[in-house]
Amino acid sequence: MVIPRSIAVLLVLIPVMTGCGSLLKSRYAMDDPVYAEKYQDGAEKGDLAGKLKQSVDARHVSGLGGPFVSGGAQFRGKGESALAGAEVGYESYGSSWHSSRISLSGFVGHEDWFAGLDTGVRLQLPARVTPFVGVGTFNGLSTTREDATDDGVDNDDDGRTDERGETKTEPDAWLSSVYPEVGLHFWPTGKSRLTFYSRYLVTTEGRDSDDWLTGFQYSVFSR
Ligand SMILES: [Ca+2]
Ligand SMILES: [Ca+2]
């Protein structure tokens, strides 16, 4: 899997920026007022079960909302190309176990691109580290490949004009897709979350255009 270098750097920097110290604390989420109130006294020194509980408890996320950025890569079903892109959006927790999301996203590849509005919902455990499942939709503009063997133009710049199989890229009117999603959340602190996700995009352009999209998300929440 190809991960753009900028994303790899971000993944290294984010835990540092959000405070590595909290990674080792059993009361990791004291930056959130709800969590802080619940665990203000903290478990006794020898109370390992109590310490474990406060180190994994993420029930405080109910009611949180905030912006996120994400970056990812998309792999076309037939392995013909990969696209890289980014999303900027907002995610909110209606309860500690479900969240909803809306974002603008854009992806570009060698000859293709798409951009539009992404929405989705996720179900997860109220824990500091949790897998999740979700469903989402994407609606926007995209490119499509068209036959270009009789337009008198060397569309792919390979020195041959209108050779057999030559195609050109055209903006398409509209692309809609729905996707199931799986992933993993990790909360470095009570208000910041790292997410790894993988989606299977089922598009209106037919099964040949179905894609895997996988990426990382960094979110900052508040009440
Ligand atoms: Ca050509
Ligand atoms: Ca041509």
Automatic annotation (TrEMBL):
It comes from the Bacteria. Residues 161-171 have a biased composition (Basic and acidic residues). Residues 148-160 have a biased composition (Acidic residues). Residues 143-171 are annotated as: Disordered. This is Outer membrane protein beta-barrel domain-containing protein. It comes from Roseimaritima multifibrata. The lineage of its organism: Bacteria, Pseudomonadati, Planctomycetota, Planctomycetia, Pirellulales.
